[in-house]
Amino acid sequence: MGVETDIASWILTPSDMTAVDRDAATSGLSSFGLMRAAGYAVAASALRHYPAATRFVCLCGVGNNGGDAMIAAEALTGSGADVAVYLMGDRARLAGDAARAFATVPLRSQPLGAYVPAIGDVVIDGLFGAGLSRAVSGALATLMRAVTDLALPVIAIDLPSGVDGRSGQVLGDSFQAAQTVTFMARKPGHLLLPGRTLCGALEVVDIGIPARIIRSHRAPLVENTPALWRDAVKALDPGAHKYRRGHLVVFSGAAASSGAARMSATAGLSAGAGLVTMVAPTEAMPTLAAHLTAVMLKPVDTDAMLSDLIEDTRLNAFVLGPGFGAPERVRRFVAALCDRPLVLDADGITAFREDPQALFDAFRGPVRLVLTPHDGEFSRLFPDLAGDTALSKIDRATMAAARSNAVLILKGPDTVIAEPHGRVAINANAPPWLATAGSGDVLAGIVGAHLAQGMPPFEAAASAVWRHGAAGHEAGEGMTAEDLLRAIRPLPQAS
Ligand SMILES: NC(=O)C1=CN([C@@H]2O[C@H](COP(=O)(O)OP(=O)(O)OC[C@H]3O[C@@H](n4cnc5c(N)ncnc54)[C@H](O)[C@@H]3O)[C@@H](O)[C@H]2O)[C@@H](O)CC1
Ligand SMILES: Nc1ncnc2c1ncn2[C@@H]1O[C@H](COP(=O)(O)OP(=O)(O)O)[C@@H](O)[C@H]1O
Ligand SMILES: [K+]
């Protein structure tokens, strides 16, 4: 069973899911029926992936996650498999549907402490799902490590126990699952790290909650897929001339550190800007001229020269920061560019560490700033958000976007793209080999090209992150940032 493609890219927080459950119950759906569907889906997955298991060991908590596991135990027993059930905590604590599952399934359970992991076991993890509320420790953490040490396959119900569905963070300790079976929609913890890795392969199963109920609780949170921005991708007009394809300006620092900006400029051309001009100090011109061909060059040494240059309104997007150095000069240039679409990256971000508010104040009004920090750069502009361990990466990006009135690309293996009005996307197509010098410079250039082509900032940013990930796959493991430049491919368009 797969979910309707429309909702397949949606992501619900655990609290959204609780609201969905509540509405499903009020609309007349049996919550125990949902539990049965969930448990049977888990059993089907277990049998599909481990037909030769010696024994399925169902570990049950006292919440509904444990109820799902008990139903899975029933279904597995019914299929003829050898099954053992262990319950964490006192049976008297079972309530609601979980109590009903234990009352109706005629299988004996033993206390969790009696479980001795053995080779051949397949563990069905129903200890905690959405209800995880405190850190896993003590005997349970020891058991998790024993299962991991024996490399027993774990099938997690909803989430690997110990993973926080809201943030993807581990609370104390967690299982490393081989498979995770979740219901109706993914939760942030399935996509954010380390949760994504701990889930293993993820299955999203339709247990029969109507899409209209899910839709009514849909937060503005999705996976970053082409469906999010395809409509903003402009088909290339057969009669286009280069000025209609956008004119991107990339600023370079001194000659010796101009490689980063060159990478951004070349990425901008490859990503479809009609023209790219590299603006740099006169002393850097010979170096730049020796390296660049299709990218045009323009010397700018003073603020007055910059003002003259940007009088040309055909220059419709700017990238400032890669290899730029010179924090004071950054701040002056940013002040001059504050009413234009701007990608601020790397040194461009760091230049505002003493007074981030000055940057945010300059970009009030219609959104035109895209910030592309990795975690280190993020902490320079938003130290309080970076230091607040209660916030998820989604919270951090959303709050930073609202504060700065910018589109935030909070980079990493699980890049989050957020805009000031609350829309958020989690990116999941980036291969780990994107973690290489210069890869962020390429991304900044792609975002700049999309802005120059007239895409709105959020769509420009999200599509650039996706395109960067796709280029990483195209270039393959072992690639350098130069290979990545050559692997940039056209964006999917609306049909
Ligand atoms: N979303 C849905 O539509 C459905 C959800 N179902 C299941 O319901 C689950 C959520 O159920 P619950 O809300 O009962 O929550 P859980 O079953 O995840 O856990 C809640 C219980 O665990 C305890 N607990 C939390 N953290 C602990 C820790 N570190 N150490 C010890 N005890 C801890 C809590 O005090 C509470 O008693 C989902 O994950 C899913 O598996 C299914 O039954 C099917 C329907
Ligand atoms: N482990 C990873 N998996 C996937 N993508 C990654 C990983 N680590 C980093 N990236 C991506 O690689 C790029 C690195 O950018 P950045 O940190 O600015 O590096 P640089 O300054 O060297 O270009 C970002 O787009 C980031 O999202
Ligand atoms: K679980």
List the helices and strands and how they pair.
Layout: H1 5-8, H2 14-26, H3 31-49, E1 55-60, H4 64-78, E2 83-87, H5 96-104, E3 109-111, E4 121-126, H6 138-149, E5 154-157, E6 179-183, H7 188-191, H8 195-199, E7 201-205, H9 211-216, E8 221-223, H10 226-229, E9 247-251, H11 259-270, E10 275-280, H12 285-291, E11 296-299, H13 303-310, E12 315-320, H14 327-336, E13 342-344, H15 346-350, H16 356-362, E14 369-371, H17 375-381, H18 383-387, H19 393-404, E15 407-410, E16 416-418, E17 424-426, H20 439-452, H21 457-475, H22 481-486
Parallel strand pairs: 1-2, 1-4, 2-3, 4-5, 5-6, 6-7, 8-17, 9-10, 9-12, 10-11, 12-13, 13-14, 14-15
Antiparallel strand pairs: 15-16, 16-17
Helix pairs in contact: 3-4, 4-5, 11-20, 20-21
The structure holds ligand NAX, adenosine-5'-diphosphate and potassium ion (K).
Identify the notable features of this structure and list them briefly:
about 500 residues, binds potassium ion, 2 domains, UDP-N-acetylmuramoyl-L-alanine:D-glutamate ligase, binds ligand NAX, ten-stranded mixed β-sheet, seven-stranded parallel β-sheet, alpha/beta, elongated, Nnr, binds adenosine-5'-diphosphate, Rossmann fold, 17 strands, ADP-dependent NAD(P)H-hydrate dehydratase activity
